[in-house]
Amino acid sequence: MSIRVMLVDDQVLLRTGFRMVLAAQPDMEVVAEAGDGAEAIENLRSTAVDVVLMDVRMPRLDGVEATRRICAEPDAPKVLILTTFDLDEYAFSGLKAGASGFMLKDVPPAELLGAIRSVHSGDAVVAPSTTRRLLDRFSPMLPSSVNEPQHKELERLTEREREVMMLVAQGLSNGEIAARLVLSEATVKTHVGRILTKLGLRDRVQVVVLAYESGLVRAGGGH
Asked: Cβ(28)–Cβ(113) under 8 Å?
């Protein structure tokens, strides 16, 4: 089955460009388009979508709020935030709202297609180093970890799981974590899966956000 994609951007020319790239792929089809978040939500009521490519700065309803509303629904499609600037504060808000990652609008076509496929398969699509750079930039805006409910949730984790979570948040891949902790990559993947389950998180991106919000990891990679 093809990956059903919805394009959400107020610039028709950009949507046209993305549609042409996706239409050339045998495993993808653009099933809907929208010029703002409100129209995107309306479209989802009548169209089955697997992945939403979501712009952030749009009239009526921006991409962050649209992402929040979409991801709050049961069986929601995955959302991939598209940004113009690498360190866009809207991208960080989008990750907190439930997006599975973010990419730049000028990303090479091959990377965009790979990201869509990764999101569809359940993975986060931003490189850990990119996520870390974004969070390092905006972590001063995060609430204090004092009395944060998320902090208590971390008590569910084993000591090893907390170690893995800190390394994920510091920008290490599963392979790098495996080398650091002298574990197999399969074991690290299992730990990451258990962290997601115990904390009720959707993907690796949300692990990183929670690690920063809870104070487990601070800007610059400290803990």
From this structure: yes
